[in-house]
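Weekly modeling sync, notes
Attendees: AB, CL, MP (scribe)

Item 1: holo prediction request
CL wants a bound-state model with fe (ii) ion before deciding which constructs to order. AB pointed out that an apo prediction alone won't tell us much about the pocket. Agreed to run with the ligand included and paste results into these notes for async review.

Input as submitted:
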Amino acid sequence: MSKEATLYSPVIKDERGIVSVVFAKDHPGYDDPEYQRHRAGIAEAALRYVPGQPVPDVVYTEEEHATWRLVNAELAEKHRRHACREFLAGKERLALPDDRLPQLGEASAAINEATGFRFSPAAGLVEVRDFYGSLADRRFQATQYIRHFSMPRFSPEPDMIHEVVGHGSHLSAQRLADLYELFGKAVRRLRSKEAVGMVSSVFWFAMEYGLVREDGEIKACGASLLSSCAELERFQEADIRPLDVASMAGQGYLVEQYQPVLFCADSFAHMEEFLSTFLITVSDADPLATT
Ligand SMILES: [Fe+2]
C-alpha cells in the first residue's frame, strides 16, 4: 500500500453490488448520511466509467457550490502572492468559473484544449502503477467529490478543489504537463517496487509540494500547496532544501500534516531539467545511480 493510501476514504462494493464510502470517525462527513449517499453515488459512477467516454456530470448541492466560491476566492488571493509563474499561466488558461463548482468534464475539455491531457473520474485511491501509467497516456485520474461543507478550508482527502485547481492548472501549462507525462513514462518503464517508490516520492516533493525561486523570492509550484489555503500561508516556515533525488526519496512525508521539509529549485527551468534528467535515467538496477 502506498503512503497516499492513507489519504482516501475507502470505497467498498458489497456482494449485491452496492457501493459505499467508508468514513473515519474524524472525517467531517462521518455524521452526515446525505453526504455519504452523495459520495457513494459519485463513487459508483466513477467505478462504472470507461476511459474514452465523456466524464459523467455530478449534481452538486448548493452547499457544495458555496464551498467552491469561498475556497476558490481565498486561493485566488493567495495565488497572486505565492504561486509561481508557470502555475499562474496554466490557471489563467484553464479559466475555471468563480461562481460555481465546475464539472470535471468541462475542466477535462479545457486541459485537453491546452495540452492534450484529459481528466477521468476516480472513485478513490488509484493503484500507483495505474495512476502513473495513465499519465503516460496524458490522462489524469481525479476524484470528483468535494469536501464536506461544514469544514470548507479542510479536506482529509484529495477532492475537486485539489484536482482541478492544483493539478488542472498544472495540466493546462505545457511544460508542467510534459513533466506529468514523463513521470508516467518512467513508471511504465520501471519494474522494481523500489524504483517506482522513488519516482512516487519525487512526484510528491516536486509536483505536490515543490517550490521554485523567482526573482529572489520562493514561490509555490506544487499542486497540494497551491490548493491549500493553510499550506500557502505556512510553506515559507518549512526547512527548505535544494532539489536532490536521494534526499527527496529518503525524506518521509506526512500526509495529514504540514510538510516540515520542502525542496526548492533555483528556477522553474532548473526544476524542469532536474526532473527530466531523473525521469529519463532512473533505472531498476540502481535507482539512485542517476543522482
Ligand atoms: Fe494530488
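Recorded for review: The chain has a mean pLDDT of 93.
Action items: CL to compare against the apo run; MP to circulate these notes.
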